[in-house]
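hey m, so remember when u said the C-alpha cells were messed up on ur end? i reran from scratch. heres the input so u can diff it against urs
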Amino acid sequence: MAREVPASNLIEMEPPPGFARSHQGVPIGTWSDDGAQALHLLRVLLDGDAEIEPRLAAGLQAWSGAGDLTPDGRVFDIGIQTQEALSRLARGVPPNQSGPHEERNNGNGSLMRVLPAALLPAKHDAALIDRARRQSLPTHGHARSLLACALSTLISARLLAGSTFVQALDEAQEILEQTVAPVERDELRTLLDGRFDAPQGSGYVVDCLWSAVAAVLRTDTFEDCMRCAIGFGNDTDTTACVAGGWAGLLYGEEAIPSRWRSTLRGKHLVEPLLVRLTAAWGLDAVPPPL
C-alpha cells in the first residue's frame, strides 16, 4: 500500500506514481479553498478596513456558491466549520456572529486565509490585530482562532519589514502577551503552549500554526519548507499555505521554483489584485511575474 505522503524529495505539484491525489479531476496547479479565501480577503482589504466582516462574508458566499476567485469557477474543498458558518449566514446570522465559537470550533479555516491582513499598510500593531480578528469572525469565532490569526499576522508583518523568522515570532508573541485582554489570557497560553507538541499538520488551529512554524524553522529554502510542511501529512494544503506565506516573505518570489510558478493556474485572477497591492504601498503598479 502506498504511503499517504511521498518521500520529501518526491513532493511536487503532481504526486509520483502510486500516490493518490485527494481531489481527482482537479487540474494540477489549481489552488484550493485556502487560496480562494485568501484572495477574497485581499480584495476586501484593498477596499479598506471598514465592514470587513460583511464584505468578506459576501465574498465567501460568492466563492462557495459560484466559485468566485477560483480558476475554474468550481469549489472542490470546503471545511466542515466553514460550511456551517455559511449556512448560518444564509439563515441571516450577522457576519460578526456567524462563525461557530465553541471550543470544539477551532479549525484552521480562518488562519489559512489571514496573510493579506499583514500585506496592506497599517499604522500600528493594533490595526493588524483588529484586521486579523475581524476576518476570522464570519467563520471561526472562538478566541483561540482569533488569537492564532493575530499571532500569524504579527509574524507576517515583521517578516515583511525584514526581521528573521525567530525575531518575528518572538516579537509577535510578546506583543500579544502584553496586549491580550484578561479574559483571553488562558486562551493565549493554550495557543502558545502548542509549540511544545510534535507537529502533526492537522486541521486544529493550534497544531496548524505550530506545524507551519516548525516547517519554517527546520528548513532554509522555500522549496524545502513546502516539502517539510506537506510531509507532516493530514491537512497538507493548509499547513503548506500558512508556512508558504511566511517562507514567501522570508525568501522572496525568486526562491519559488520556476517549475511551480509556471504550473500555477488562474494568474489572470491574481495579477489585478497584485497591481492594487503594490499601488497601496506606493510602488509601481506592475504585477510581479508568476
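this time it looks ok to me. Residues 32-99+115-139 form one domain. if urs says something different then somethings off w ur setup not the seq
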